[in-house]
Each structure stands twice: as C-alpha cells, then as structure tokens.
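Homework help board

Subject: predicted structure for assignment chain

Our instructor gave us this sequence and asked us to write out the predicted structure in token form, then describe one feature. I got the tokens but I'm not sure how to describe them. Can anyone check?
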Amino acid sequence: MSEDILKSCVDCGVLKCHGKPGEYPDFCLTAGLSEETRRKVEELYADPENRELSRVSAEIEADYYLKYTRVQEIVEFARRMGYHKIGIATCVGLIRESRTFAKILRANGFEVYGALCKVGAMEKEMVGVPPEKMEVTGPIMCNPILQAELLNQAGTDLNVVVGLCVGHDSLFYKYSEAVCTTLVTKDRVLGHNPAAALYLTNSYYKRLLQEQK
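My token output:
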C-alpha cells in the first residue's frame, strides 16, 4: 500500500476525542476542525428533529448499554420518538425474520407496513442487466426505489431495513422520506454478520488485506 495516503480517523490510534490520554495526531480531524464547519454542524443539531433524534439515541445508549438487543433498541427508539407507523423494507430472503419483527412491533402497539424487495415484479432487463447475470437469482429485480415510494405513500414515521443488498440499500436510503435505521445487514456467507470478515482478517479472511490490482 502506498505511504502517500490521505489520513483520517481510521488511521488514528490515539482516540483523544473519545477522552483517551495523549496528543491529537497532526492529521486529526478534531484538531483541524474549522470554526465554519463546527458552526455549520452545531446549527444542524439545533434543528428540532435532529436535536431530538440525537438526544433520544444517546439516552437509549446510556440506559440500555449492554442490556438491549438491536430489536429492543429500535422498539424503544420508536416509542421515545413518538413514532406510530413503522415501515419495513425487507429482502425476500429474510421475509421470515421481517414477519417476526412485525409481530414484535405490533405487540408493542405499533402499526406496521412492509414492502418486499421484489414488489412490482419488474424485470432486471429494465436496468440493463444481461441475461447471463440472471441465471442464479432470476429475472425479477430488487426494487428499493419502489419500496421507498410505497412506504412514503403509506406515511411511515420510521423505516427499518431488513437485509437489502449492498447498493439496493443505498437506493432505499436515498429515496426514503422517513428516518431510516437498519436491523439486519445482509451477508449471505456469514449469516448476516459482516463484521465476522473483519474479525477473521488474521486467519480465514487474510486475503482481504492483499492489495487488489
């Protein structure tokens, strides 16, 4: 890897911004933060919705640290934010999990509205996918834009992503009008636990650290 790289937080071992002892490195984003940028961000946090989202999230973290699962945290977050209708944007491969999640939400007094990734039954040919790329997963495209549109029309207060593909989730976030969070991040190989690949870079996934030409 070239030494001439743009360094940032991922290259820091000090973490002084998190209260650790030591000096900020010369490339530190906190130390180099301009007053203009700081003021701009502070103004955004002054927005009532942003302020409430930030406050509630921090309080849930403090109240249930190492106690609540992510499912429980989402339920508590929605409750404290005063949300009523929860949208679920689900992968067809995780429809069972989404049904279970919907039952949990309904048991906690929420209205649930879900949209499956294959909704609309539109074909991949529409976006230029060649026939040979359809042999494994079929001709019907994942449709995150339609998922977002249907949840927008339903007037959901919070949308929860359950296992949308890489890139498809990006499109969903792009077009969702409601605040979004993620319950499940898809990883077909690792049982939807993508962090495992990071934990195993000293053994089974060492190849991930090899520079790709």
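Reply (TA_rk): Your tokens look well-formed. For the description, you could write something like this. DSSP finds seven helices and four strands in the chain. That's the kind of observation they're looking for.
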